[in-house]
Amino acid sequence: MIIVMQVGATEAQIEAVASFIRDRGFEPLILPGEGRTAIGIPASLNNDQRTNIAANISAMEGVSRVTQTSHPYKLASREYKRENTVIKVKDVEIGGNKFVVMGGPCSVESYDQFEAAAAVVKDSGATILRGGAFKPRTSPYSFQGLAEEGLKIMKEVGDKFGLVTITEAMSGDMVPLVAKYADIIQIGARSMQNFPLLIEAGKSGKPVFLKRGPSAGVDEFLLAAEYVMNQGNHNVMLCERGIMAFDSTYTRNVLDLGIVPVLKEFSHLPVIADPSHGTGVARYVRAMAKAAMVAGADGVMVEMHPNPKEALSDGSQALVPDTFRDLMNDLRGLSGYVGRTV
Ligand code: PEP
Ligand code: MN
């Protein structure tokens, strides 16, 4: 941690910061500079110490800013584990050489709808079937999902086609039910900092698919992963699904593909992009899915509906089956250039 003092900070202010650090058992390193002084704490602090010390020192007289030099997350970091984490779910590996495609409708709406979607996922060569049974909708008047009935449909259809399944749990007490039916537990963007949910998902021992909150930074995102991992469950996938936009006239969110190489550098966890929620517009999904592959993502999650015009949620961003098949072909064509298979 480095504390940068204001230009013109007095000797007494510098000494006050230094003795604050000393009082906590660390030896401050005073670095006089041109016009301003910096003070380093060359010690490995735990998360609590770091957060508390940074907050307290920020409030002291003469301090300009406090900069963290090591990361607040531990288990999710590359320092903790150098090799990429590869998560094995049934016969599917996520985070390995094979680029993973998760496809399916936003919501499980009926057996027939879900089975039709699953048939397309299967025959196009994708391996993971998505569909929400509990839906986090902006309005309480919108379709909320089929709940346990939806989970049952998902399980039955997943088994029928031999596809790995993924669906969302919205609260900690839902986790055991979701874990009973699905192979992977999704934590939605709105729930990224629902800490009791993260803890329960961690305790479940099931692989966890963690979506980035629409306004979460890298540290917050990885600290949310840390909550799951801290329970002894290291099978966490990170999903970039679009962040808050200052102009949402043309796209729903901004798919932040810039975070993909950042996450790959600082974390060993698999990174998946969701161009469906990231753009909110079906005709932009194909381009952004390909861009995600080139950016180094380990896979994509793509919404596809047998009949988007009749979808009960997110119809405007759902690919029709033929476009989903075309996308799979695009990704296969592109995969050689990035040294992967699909
Ligand atoms: C979803 O995957 O359907 C979903 C609700 O996603 P997000 O949490 O990213 O909005
Ligand atoms: Mn959706």
CATH structural architecture of the largest domain: Alpha-Beta Barrel
- Chemical compounds bound to the protein: phosphoenolpyruvate, manganese (II) ion
> Can you tell me the residue ranges where pLDDT is under 50 for at least 5 consecutive residues?
none
The secondary-structure element order is EHEEHEEEEHEHEHEHEHEHEHHEH
Mean residue pLDDT:
95
Name the CATH homologous superfamily of the largest domain: Aldolase class I
Shape estimate: elongated
Task: Quickly count the domains.
Answer: 2
Strand share of the residues? 15-25%
Continuous helix count: 11
Helical coverage, percent range: 25-40%
Question: What is the alpha-carbon Rg in Å?
Answer: 23 Å
Name of the CATH first level of the largest domain: Alpha Beta
Major β-sheet annotation = 8 strands, parallel, barrel
- CATH topology grouping of the largest domain: TIM Barrel
Number of strands: 14
Q: Which strand order does the major sheet show?
A: 7-8-9-10-11-12-13-14
Architecture overview:
With about 350 residues, this protein is an alpha/beta fold. Helices cover about 35% and strands about 15% of the residues. The chain has two domains: about 1-65, Alpha-Beta Plaits (2-Layer Sandwich), CATH 3.30.70; about 85-340, TIM Barrel, CATH 3.20.20. It contains eleven helices and 14 strands. It has an eight-stranded parallel beta barrel, surrounded by seven helices. Strands 2-3-1-4 form a four-stranded antiparallel β-sheet, with helices on one face. Strand 2 (about 30) and strand 3 (about 35-40) form a beta hairpin. Helix 3 packs parallel to helix 4.
